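Please, structure for the following, as tokens.
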Amino acid sequence: MKRAGGPRGADTFRALLRDHYTATLTNSADRPLPPGPRSAAAGKVQRLEVLRDTTPAALLREIARWTPVRPADVRRPLSGPGHWRVSDGPVRTGLGVLTGTHRPAADVRYVSAAYRPIATADWTTYRLSLTAARLGASAGVGVTVRADSEHPATLWVGRNTAHLTARGPGGSRTGPARRLEPSATHRVEVTVTPEAVRVVVDGRQRLTLPATWRDPARGAGGFALSTGLPESAGPEVPWPRFTALEVR
């Protein structure tokens, strides 16, 4: 049998996968898609490659990074800075901005970090309990759940307000908002289930964002944290920070 090669052979192989299998292997996915329910729902599996220069240690690190973890195994994720994917560079510095031990460069106004995005990709049910401090009227923190899925939801908490926003294939939609008792510190609990995202702030204010899709895998995903200041904030304005975070 003649061996298929070049672009035509590659196209034939992709067509066979599409016609006879439920998923297509890819080198580059739109978001982390390890093997699991979310990958099956999207019909795309991100593959882990072993090349000539791949060392056993590097391969084991990647396998560990992709190995799923349960919410019960995480507990206090702020104590493990090496598990975070941070938006502004070095992991320890970026996580330090979120916890208040570091301040970013003067031109930085927003920092975010996702917790083990591949290992948590298939999470559908979990609860986050956190405390945010140094909050201002326009300086606050964000908590994104179902991160990197088709339907992430973000909670923003400031000194006076809290609101939920959802994103999906059709765009963004604004969820519920609540006025809060003005305070620089708020305690927040976020519960994620296939049916809804439910938030309780300071044990009193409640916000609920129901799911608008049926397949739980399409909303599966872990969580990310963010913090920021408005452009007008001077160097004397402290960055909002997370002082506690537990996962259950």
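Residues 6-20 form the longest helix (15 residues). The first strand starts at residue 24 and ends at 26.
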